[in-house]
Amino acid sequence: MKRTFVFLLSWMLLGFTYSQVDNEPLGSENYRLIERLEIKSGSLKNDIHLTMRPQTREALTNYGLYVDTATSIILSDVDFKNLEHLYRDNNDLVPDKFFQESAAPIAKHFYKTPGHFFEVHSEDFQLHVDPIFYGHIGYDPDVPDDYGYINTRGAQIRATIDNKVSLYTSLTENQVRFPNFLTQRIDSTGAIPTKGFFQRFKETGFDYFEPKGYVSVNATEHINAQIGYDKLFIGDGYRSLLLSENANNFAFLKFNTKIWKFNYTNLYTELLQDGRVGPDTLKDKKYMVSHHLSFDATDWLNVGVYENVVFSRANQFEFHYLNPIIFYRAIEQQVGSPDNAAVGLNYSALLKKRLKFYGQAYIDEFRIDDIRSGDKSWVNKFGFQQGVKYIDAFGVNNLDTQVEFNSVRPYAYQHNNRFTSFTHYGEPLAHPLGNNFREVVGLVHYQPFEKLRMDGIFTYAKYGRDQDDTSWGGDLNDKADRPRPFDNGVEIGQGIENDLLNFQGRMSYEFKHNLTFDIQGLYRSLETEGFESEDEFYAGASVRWNFRALDYNY
């Protein structure tokens, strides 16, 4: 029934479309560029809402073209070079004067432009085909005889038909040996963060496929529909407390309405509870529906409202939640309040063409009387984020910095059982630490010239985890029958205390368009109450082709 509904809805929409609307992939450097240019402009432009990602390639490209010709926005030489990079990526969306052809294509058919391996441009059909490769080797002095490695091969294809229907698909095949601490996390959760399912490879490695794909159409000039298998990110920070890339890809149906100063997204997803089942075994399903409204309140201030509900119906969808504008908490009460409903807020504010302040609040459950009493009740389950981005920091061109603070109380995102918790494939759908933590994040990005980038990421977190047979609020996949130690006096970090310090540095040089060489280093220190400190150093080198760099901030 559910699949029939989705199919028919998508099929009907195909007849009422207007323009191509394929997405800029999450993690693309083009998002960093466009956000930097938005801060430099000092004002919001209503047709792009970076809080909800992915955005369409068309929206990012059009914004780049707008900034390129805006005399009031001062750009550096590197900004102009990065705009050229954006145009090469999206050469089917730029005017002829920005379209570049290669001086010497390979065998006349490949790399006819600098941006793509193979492409077709005609009046009713656009096609881009690009290979994907990531080769990495790393060294951990604590495991000198077992090198880290990443061996990723694949391809991505995007196409537009009749300038109405946009398609995207990618598939990679991967063999990886991760740093030791990440291997321990995978062993405990049964899933690779952001990747999901895996098989063991040569005892200490992992083997997995990573598929993505969607069909995107416009129902009207202002309403877009997508059906696919991918991720989404809500927020302006390095982390998100609402929805992030941390978990595996999921099946979704998404409607996006963009009109005037509003950007409204409805999301219907099918999730998998846990990866820890035997081979060839159907995994238990659960579902999430959410909507997010982004509003440009002024020319410098954006505010957003978010709501979601996670539910399980013995592998059947709850059709009450199909209404795209109704308040989910009211529906949840009507059907018997068995589900995990939550709300959220976010904001971002531009200041002095150099700064962007942003933040989020996530409210899973709270009671005003308990907050006023100061008893720190367990039912007050919420989190918040506050951050600031500072571009051209301290007067240095192309030096961008960011500081962020995240805090989530115990028991947030949890519910009566793991089938209604805010997880997918055993991993949190929001912050990778789940709940019961405080975290400080610092980032530095410096691009002294076009081809060279340097990045540093620092995180420090204090968090609590469950112990014995008691639920201290630090496990999103908690079992319903585990007792709490107390109902009041609940503090962040309760249970087994952990102090986590993580620093990563990476230097990247782009030899050719989207062909990059990286050198990276990582230092991680974890102090767990009652255990010896775990210190790990990891260094490596990589070659990436049409693939984003991997971070290990866990």
Structure description:
This protein has 554 residues and is mainly β. Helix content is 13%, strand content 43%. Strand 20 (437-449) and strand 21 form a beta hairpin. The longest helix is centred in the first third of the chain and has 13 residues, at 29-41. The model is unreliable at 1-18 (pLDDT under 50).
Reconstruct the topology from this structure:
Blueprint (H helix, E strand, L loop, with lengths): L1 H12 L15 H13 L10 E2 L3 H12 L8 H13 L28 E4 L3 E15 L8 E14 L3 E13 L2 H10 L9 E3 L3 E14 L4 E8 L2 E2 L15 E10 L2 E11 L12 E12 L4 E11 L16 H7 L5 E12 L3 E11 L2 H6 L7 E10 L8 E10 L14 E2 L2 E2 L8 E13 L2 E14 L30 E17 L2 E14 L5 E12 L9
Antiparallel strand pairs: 1-9, 2-3, 3-4, 3-24, 4-5, 5-7, 6-7, 7-8, 8-10, 10-11, 11-12, 12-13, 13-14, 14-15, 15-16, 16-17, 17-20, 18-19, 20-21, 21-22, 22-23, 23-24
Helix pairs in contact: 2-3, 3-4
Structural class: mainly beta
Contiguous uncertain segments of 5+ residues: 1-18
Oligomer: single chain
N- to C-terminal separation?
39 Å
Strand content: 35-45%
Radius of gyration: 23 Å
Counting H and I runs of at least 4 residues, what is the number of helices? 7
